[in-house]
Write a structure and sequence with these properties.
- The protein is mainly beta.
- The protein has one domain (3-99): Rieske [2Fe-2S] iron-sulphur domain (Rieske Iron-sulfur Protein), CATH 2.102.10.
- It has no helices and eleven strands.
- Strands 2-3-4-9 form a four-stranded antiparallel sheet, with no helix packed on it.
Length: 104
């Protein structure tokens, strides 16, 4: 495991998403109902930041073509995307959010 500090817990409000870069990888960090999640921050359909998208329930909607992804699993929930987005393990240590991103 390669845990990396991504943000402080105060930086992600409930039902919000932020974008960060860890080891050169764009990562989206979400808080849904108090639970934290992390996915790749680039839509698998076209190059758009999911952190600029809209949270609807437990899904993120891409701001470009409205593809939807299930935040906890990365699964595609709505076209035009056909490939899931990668998810990452996440934990809190003190006031820091840590994400398991393999070293480049």
């Amino acid at each position: 495991m390669a845990w990396h500090a991504a943000a402080s817990v105060d930086e992600v409000g409930d039902d919000e998403v932020i974008g960060v870069v860890i080891e050169g990888q764009p990562i989206a960090i979400y808080r849904l109902g108090g639970q934290l999640y992390a996915t790749h921050n680039i839509c698998s359909h076209e190059h758009a930041l999911l952190s600029d998208g809209y949270i609807e329930g437990d899904c993120i909607e891409c701001p470009l073509h409205q593809a939807r992804f299930h935040i906890p699993t990365g699964e595609v929930r709505s076209a035009p995307a056909t490939e899931p987005v990668k998810t990452y393990s996440i934990k809190v240590q003190g006031d820091q959010i840590l994400v398991d991103v393999p070293d480049a």
